[in-house]
Amino acid sequence: MRSDRSFYELNKDFEKIYTVFSSLNSVEFAEINCNKTVHIAVDMVNGFVKFGALSSNEVMSINNDVADFAARCKENGIANYALCDCHPDNCTEFQTYPVHCVKDTPESELTDELKKAADFKIFPKLSVNGWLEDEFRNDIISNGFDTFIITGDCTDMCVIQLALSIKSGLNRINRNSRVIVVKELTATCSLPSRLPETAELAAFLIMQTNGIEVCQNVR
Hints:
Layout: H1 7-20, E1 37-42, H2 46-49, H3 57-75, E2 79-85, H4 112-117, E3 121-125, H5 134-142, E4 147-153, H6 155-172, E5 178-187, H7 196-209, E6 213-215
Parallel strand pairs: 1-2, 1-4, 2-3, 4-5, 5-6
């Protein structure tokens, strides 16, 4: 049986991970086939950005930058998709998380800044994993996208599940894919009893280990 590692050893590992994700390269629009690329903004809705039980300053801090990025995607011919949390009143997810983003309420709507930045194709999302939404998944597959740029929140929940599911889902049907998560354009909220910085670094590491490209930015 492997012996428990000391706190010192674990701390040194954490420092290494922090260093790796503090000095990432950026991706250039020029190296992407824009016609086969889609930008997916995850949960950039009022209920995570501006108000409600799960809104946070961390997610608010990336709102304008994600909007600006969507505008640049539009200029470069890249499609903009949005996965938006949208739950029924009696959603079982509310047994785990506070009530949030109820259907037909302002919380479930894309923020005004993103709406003004670009024409998003919007897909309601009933769980933390957007890939489970049939309409979204079928659209992704039928349009033949091979490059996926993911922004939004939360890095260690909805973002990681989407990124891993796209990669494994397309691997399953033997389709090549490049899944890119943009560090500067993702965020993790700081709710009580959470360690957002640690959770986010762990998510980046898990994604990278599973073939996801974590970059600083796309420019």
